[in-house]
Design a protein that fits this description.
The complex is a heterodimer of chains A (about 140) and B (about 230).
Chain A (H helix, E strand, L loop, with lengths): L14 H13 L10 H28 L5 H28 L5 E2 L3 E9 L9 E2 L5 E2 L8
Antiparallel strand pairs in A: 1-2, 3-4
Chain B lengths: L1 H11 L1 H8 L7 E4 L3 H15 L3 E7 H5 L4 E5 H10 L8 H9 L3 E5 L6 E6 H4 L7 H5 L3 H9 L6 E2 L2 H16 L6 H12 L8 E2 L4 H24 L1
Parallel strand pairs in B: 6-7
Antiparallel strand pairs in B: 1-4, 2-5, 3-4
Helix pairs in contact in B: 10-11, 10-12, 11-12
Chain lengths: ~140, ~230
């Protein structure tokens, strides 16, 4: 965390700036660009919790992965994890809200369709889509 | 995150990239679409192009979401995320459009087979009552729709009861081993009728809402007959 009045070098692990940027993005969703209701306030608090949780996870993970690590690595790792969490949070929220308009089988079970080539019977667990994706095959495992 | 988006972009443009490179590519994803007619058309097209058996697969999205190590994304949601985070440049615009056309959902992970509800081969589906020659021959679905719109494709004029029989029997073939699951067949019927009966080259005097009602009644009669057999 960089103290106010002190300007960090470009590329330095400025956690304070990172948190400010994340909160700015959260605030942009509110009409007055700042929390107005208790629910808004909760959304900001949740974001702060997510940031704190991800920072703690990174701090615990890095020493387990390697003996040498720096604040720069921790910062980059945290930034990547926050980006991923943001994308997950956004896509999962939207997808669950659009499930109602998706085709479904049963009362609320959405279904979707695909095409795939047939496989030799000797490899029944294998599945290959028309885009040549191999999933579920031990010998053809993907990255 | 950047790696994920790069991989997704590569997957969305896989067909174009493969054509350019002249060799097959592997990605981490499996493409699916909630549009029945779109996937059905693609299944037929692939079958003709590859001269081998191609299957039409139905996935249960909820089962996939509940499967550990499997993740499902609606590509449109990822594209919306890219818009809000001003990163749309990470996936080429044309690839984005292709994904939007079929409302693509991508599956990644290992337990994909746990989400499969039914697999039906194109050879079984090709001769179902709703599939017509123009649908099979049109290179793209939009071309087929244009043919139908301009009345260049064949149109069958029939009665409501006959049309409903055609739709319900197709849905039953599609449902395969789940043909006894009336609710599931009913959903397939609704999805077949989503683009309208006219889309399949079938014309009746009744409107689509009436056709849906008649199909539901037809399926309901089947259920009632089965129930009476059970009680006997």
């Amino acid at each position: 965390m960089v103290l106010s009045g002190i300007h960090p070098f470009p590329g330095s692990p400025d956690l304070g700036r990172l948190i400010q940027d994340r909160l700015k993005i959260v605030n942009q969703q509110f009409p007055a660009l700042a929390p107005d209701t208790l629910d808004d306030f909760r959304i900001v608090a949740d974001e702060l919790s997510t940031i704190a949780r991800i920072c703690q996870t990174t701090i615990n993970r890095l020493p387990a992965q390697s003996e040498t690590y720096t604040a720069v690595e921790a910062f980059k790792d945290t930034e990547r994890a926050l980006d991923w969490a943001g994308c997950m949070n956004f896509t999962m929220n939207v997808t669950s809200s659009t499930n109602r308009s998706s085709p479904s089988c049963g009362q609320s079970r959405p279904i979707t369709f695909s095409t795939h080539h047939s496989f030799p019977r000797a490899r029944p667990a294998c599945y290959r889509s028309t885009r040549s994706v191999y999933i579920g095959c031990p010998e053809d495992s993907i990255q | 995150m950047q790696d994920f988006l790069k991989s997704l972009g590569m997957h969305l443009g896989k067909n174009a990239e493969e054509a350019k490179a002249g060799k097959a590519m592997r990605t981490k994803f499996t493409s699916t679409s909630p549009r029945l007619e779109w996937t059905l058309h693609l299944t037929g097209k692939k079958s003709r192009k590859l001269h081998e058996q191609v299957n039409f697969v139905i996935f249960d999205l909820q089962a996939l979401r509940q499967t550990p190590e499997t993740t499902v994304f609606r590509v449109m949601d990822v594209l919306r995320f890219l818009e809000t985070s001003k990163q749309t440049h990470l996936i080429p615009t044309e690839y984005q459009q292709w994904a939007r056309n079929c409302d693509e959902y991508v599956i990644m992970g290992r337990g994909i087979e746990k989400g499969i509800v039914q697999i039906t081969s194109w050879s079984e589906l090709r001769w179902t009552p709703i599939i017509n020659d123009t649908f099979c021959r049109a290179y793209t679905l939009s071309l087929y729709e244009r043919f139908q719109h301009e009345r260049m494709g064949g149109i069958i004029q029939t009665e409501c009861g006959q049309a409903c029989e055609m739709v319900v029997s197709t849905a039953r073939i599609m449902a395969g081993q789940k043909t006894e699951d009336i609710e599931f067949v009913q959903h397939l019927v609704h999805l077949i009728l989503k683009p309208g009966l006219r889309f399949w080259g079938i014309q009746v005097s009744e409107d689509d809402a009436e056709i849906v009602k008649e199909c539901d009644e037809l399926l309901g009669d089947g259920l009632a007959a089965r129930m009476s057999q059970i009680s006997v």
